């Protein structure tokens, strides 16, 4: 009994410490005047409005959403054929590409960022807006790769055999049998990559830092000129968006399974 | 469907695009970075192909040695604290109902994917004079007047552990979720207290998982590049910060690349050790 009380107490404390920074930022974001005080003085949502009306913040928000959508889509386009190939054929050598896909995620991010910086500079594309999309797609390809390997692994091969016996070729099997079964894994792979790209700073900064402002870059630049409640409002919006995406993954997919097999595949 | 080796171009076609993308946009940039590390820096911000080891020789300076040992020590401290808190936490987490587990996982994933910029901003606000935690202490009568707690080593450590905690839980989660619950029950039936069962049965059974996780968290903490700038003082800058600084602000790509190569070697060696420790557990 005492043990249980202590356990809940510890869990409650951890939940409190984990949410404390976000709660304070949420409080700061509704200050009436342009000051970062907590508890907030007065109540105003004008800082949230500024995120959408101020061209600088709105531009950064739109840039981030576009970059995250495109790079997550490209990451899935890279991961899907690779995961399918590994599942469909016996090709041990192709595992090398799987390892390649996992590496950028395990190494300290500054290394991948520096690699991209030297690469884009060498090919003369340093600063071009599209380079950040390719960079993020390769950086985050690990996530759809892991969810898709898991998804293909869960497909019952006897369905595929039944379809093949009745004369379906690979393409038909993929479209009519496999695709519906792995769709949730495609979506969660996309969602993971999307959220991480949205929050990514160092790769974006090294690749397009001087030409394009994503939201994390904009927040960092704003930090140098002093704090405003707008930054707090943006942070709250970002945290909510992130939690919403993961909530949706949990709602439509099997989150414990996705995370349980995640490390098994590493 | 027969799972045989693929034959001919048509059967290999699907892997061409992913293979090409990974080679062109990961293997080549990575190799290029290694090459740049032996290039010669040209004043004015660029570099020329060459084969010099001057960039590596700078590792021998006292300044670099200081940064390196601080980075490793800090990462070790963060890993020890994060695993120390996360292990008992995850042990309880996997025993909660499915719904409760999912709520925790969504919460932890949300914090894990937060940008370092946002974590740094949130913690510096939490520790600031005007909005910070000290105002609460003043209200409770524990302190005379609010004060700023950041930047400081404590602030940096808090931020790093905060960032590493969800990662640690998610690395531990699969191993603990698959741990046989009868292990603890058997110990309890034989009369040991829950605490005793935890420390004498569960912890030793998962010793290799704990070692592997600690190493993974160590590498994760080593990668932190913004928190030392936002929450620490200049003497708290880590290797990752120094690499960014040399590459962007000092325009010394060759030296930044040499440090990055060094960081890769350290990380890969550690990840190899972690995989080895993890594998031993599976065969045991």
Automatic annotation (TrEMBL), chain A:
Subcellular location: Cell inner membrane; Cell membrane
Record keywords: Cell inner membrane, Cell membrane, Membrane, Transmembrane, Transmembrane helix, Transport
Annotated ABC transmembrane type-1 domain residues: 61-250
Record keyword Transmembrane helix present: yes
Residues that span the membrane, as ranges: 60-87, 99-121, 133-155, 176-196, 202-220, 232-252
PROSITE patterns: ABC_TM1 (PS50928)
Family: Belongs to the binding-protein-dependent transport system permease family.
Protein name: ABC transporter permease
UniProtKB/TrEMBL annotation, chain B:
Membrane-crossing segments per the record: 12-39, 59-90, 102-123, 153-176, 197-227, 255-278
Boundaries of every ABC transmembrane type-1 domain copy: 68-274
Keyword line: Cell membrane, Membrane, Transmembrane, Transmembrane helix, Transport
Gene3D superfamilies in alphabetical order: MetI-like (1.10.3720.10)
PROSITE patterns: ABC_TM1 (PS50928)
Topology in membrane: Multi-pass membrane protein
Subcellular location: Cell membrane
Similarity comment text for this entry: Belongs to the binding-protein-dependent transport system permease family. CysTW subfamily.
Protein name, per record: ABC transporter permease
Species the sequence originates in: Azospirillum isscasi
């Amino acid at each position: 009994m005492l043990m249980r009380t202590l356990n809940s107490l510890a869990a409650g404390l951890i939940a409190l410490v984990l949410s404390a920074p976000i709660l304070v930022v949420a409080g700061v974001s509704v200050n009436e005047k342009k000051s970062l005080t907590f508890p907030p003085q007065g109540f105003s949502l004008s800082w949230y409005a500024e995120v959408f009306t101020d061209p600088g913040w709105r531009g950064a928000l739109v840039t981030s959403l576009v970059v995250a959508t495109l790079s997550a889509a490209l990451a899935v386009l890279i991961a899907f054929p690779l995961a399918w190939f590994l599942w469909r054929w016996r090709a041990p050598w192709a595992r090398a590409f799987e390892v390649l896909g996992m590496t950028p995620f395990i190494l300290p991010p500054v290394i991948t960022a520096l690699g991209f910086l030297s690469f884009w500079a060498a090919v003369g594309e340093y600063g071009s807006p599209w380079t950040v999309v390719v960079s993020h797609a390769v950086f985050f390809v690990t996530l759809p790769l892991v969810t898709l390997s898991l998804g293909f692994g869960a497909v019952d091969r006897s369905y595929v055999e039944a379809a093949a016996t009745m004369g379906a070729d690979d393409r038909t099997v993929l479209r009519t049998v496999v695709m519906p079964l792995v769709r949730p894994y495609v979506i969660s792979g996309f969602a993971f990559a999307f959220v991480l790209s949205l929050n990514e700073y160092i790769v974006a900064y090294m690749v397009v830092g001087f030409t394009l402002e994503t939201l994390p870059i904009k927040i960092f630049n704003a930090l140098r000129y002093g704090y405003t409640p707008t930054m707090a409002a943006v942070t709250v919006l970002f945290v909510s968006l992130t939690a919403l995406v993961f909530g949706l993954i949990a709602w439509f997919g099997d989150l414990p399974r996705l995370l349980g097999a995640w490390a098994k595949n590493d | 469907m027969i799972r045989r080796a693929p034959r001919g171009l048509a059967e290999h076609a699907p892997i061409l695009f992913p293979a090409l993308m990974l080679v062109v946009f990961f293997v080549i940039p990575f190799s290029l970075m290694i090459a740049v590390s032996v290039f010669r820096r040209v004043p004015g911000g660029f570099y020329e192909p060459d084969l010099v080891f001057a960039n590596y020789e700078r590792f021998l300076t006292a300044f670099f040695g200081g940064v390196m040992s601080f980075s490793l020590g800090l990462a070790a401290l963060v890993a020890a604290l994060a695993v120390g808190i996360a292990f008992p936490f995850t042990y309880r987490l996997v025993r909660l109902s499915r719904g409760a587990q999912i709520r925790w996982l969504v919460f932890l994933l949300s914090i894990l994917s937060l940008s370092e910029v946002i974590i740094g901003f949130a913690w510096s606000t939490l520790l600031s004079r005007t909005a910070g935690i000290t105002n609460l202490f003043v209200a409770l009568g524990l302190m005379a007047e609010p004060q700023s707690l950041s930047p400081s080593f404590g602030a940096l450590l808090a931020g790093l552990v905060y960032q590493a905690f969800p990662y640690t839980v998610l690395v531990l989660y699969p191993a603990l979720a698959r741990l046989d619950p009868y292990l603890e029950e058997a110990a309890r039936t034989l009369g040991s207290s829950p605490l005793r069962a935890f420390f004498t049965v569960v912890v030793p059974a998962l010793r290799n998982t704990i070692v592997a996780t600690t190493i993974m968290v160590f590498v994760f903490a080593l990668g932190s590049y913004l928190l030392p700038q936002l929450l620490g003082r200049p003497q708290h800058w880590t290797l990752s910060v120094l690499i960014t600084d040399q590459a962007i602000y000092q325009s010394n790509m060759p030296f930044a690349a040499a440090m990055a190569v060094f960081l890769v070697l350290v990380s890969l060696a550690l990840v190899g050790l972690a995989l080895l420790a993890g594998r031993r557990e599976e065969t045991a």
